Amino acid sequence: MTNKIKEEIEILKKDKNAIILAHNYQSKEVQDIADFVGDSLELCIKASEIKDKDMIVFCGVDFMGETAVILNPDKKILIPDANAECPMAHMLTGEQVLAAKEKHPNAAVCLYVNSLADAKQYADTLCTSSNAVKVVESLEQDEILFGPDNNLGDYVRDKTSKKIMAITEIGYCYLHKKITTEDVEEKRKEYPNAEIICHPECDMVVQKACDKVMSTGGMVSYISNSQNNEFILGTEVDMKHRVEKEAPGKKIYPLREDSICEEMKLHTLEKIRDTLKNESPQITLDENVAKRSMKSVKYMIKVSK
Q1: Which of 119, 124, 91 is nearest to 105 (CA)?
Q2: How far from 157 is each of 84, 105, 125, 136, 164, CA to CA, in Å?
Q3: C-alpha dihedral sign at 29, 58, 85, 129
Q4: Quick one: which H or E segment has residue 145?
């Protein structure tokens, strides 16, 4: 049955002149059917470079699809399951950004790309976990309003001399938030020769307890070029699949087996097929919101290249 669905997807993709993009946190089956798999930055850059397709099927969460809409106003952006919403992105609203700007008029606004267009439209720039430090350091202002992920904000604060100010008191990724220093200690005992790498969405105490802190795209690159053979990843469990494909021969262990992004897992091969067939659900944005958001997206991509 799975092979039949895969064949149907390939036929539909060709007929519709579509491309499938998938985030690292998708299931193995979805990653394998995708034309491109990446982290938030890699997906943003890829979306900005798509010229010869009429349709993009985005296997990720809502804010990622919105970013694809911002970058491709002339294309149809589809998401296999419309309920795939990032809880963290919904922790920050445009009203909260505007209120923070009013309180700190001399500060620049740098938002994590894991935010909705409602908030993005008021940002000076965006960043991802892989380029946050570089983006913040590129800004002229010394004061930076940052959100929605406060752990990533702490990571940037630790790496730069800028004054990082959280826009909201609460802003986090639930799957990274559950990782503890006890988890790190236990895995270190279990795999004493393994290097432990965690994502900057983890709490700062966890970041300090690990050997390296980097984005998922950074993990792939680092592990591929490392002389070490064993690694423990403090991020979503299915990141293991991409790393094993791109760094064959390396032994990869999840820091926690239950680090699962439930929203990412809503997408299935059946839903991808049906989305291509029905050309829905489609992600749309208010044209003015999309235009206002373009500035911050383009700034981030420019700094990242």
Answers
A1: 124
A2: 30, 20, 17, 10, 6
A3: positive
A4: strand 143-147
- Answer yes or no: do 157 and 297 share one domain: yes
Q: In what order do the strands lie in the sheet with 251-254?
A: 212-213, 195-198, 230-234, 251-254
Residues 7, 47, single domain; the answer is yes
Calpha distance 117→290 (Å, rounded) = 7
Over its length of 305 residues, how does the chain's per-residue pLDDT go in tens digits? Answer: 789 999 999 999 999 999 999 999 999 999 999 999 999 889 989 999 999 999 999 999 999 999 999 999 999 999 999 999 999 999 999 999 999 999 999 999 999 999 999 999 999 999 999 999 999 999 999 999 999 999 999 999 999 999 999 999 999 999 999 999 999 999 999 999 999 999 999 999 999 999 999 999 999 999 999 999 999 999 999 999 999 999 999 999 999 999 999 999 999 999 999 999 999 999 999 999 999 999 999 999 999 87
Supply the range of the domain harboring residue 152.
Answer: 89-172+289-304
Buried b (16+ CB within 10 A) or exposed e, 192-229: eebbbbbbbbbbeebbebbebbbbbbbbbebbeeeeee
Inter-residue contact 200 to 214 (CB < 8 Å): yes
Q: Is the peptide bond before 105 cis (omega within 30 degrees of 0)?
A: no
Taking the whole predicted model, whether its pTM rises above 0.90 is answered as: yes
| Cα distance between residue 60 and residue 39, in whole Å | 10
Domain count within the chain: 3
DSSP state of 282: B
Claim to verify: residue 132 and residue 61 sit in the same structural domain: no
- Cα distances from 297 to residues 71, 123, 190, in angstroms, run 8, 9, 42
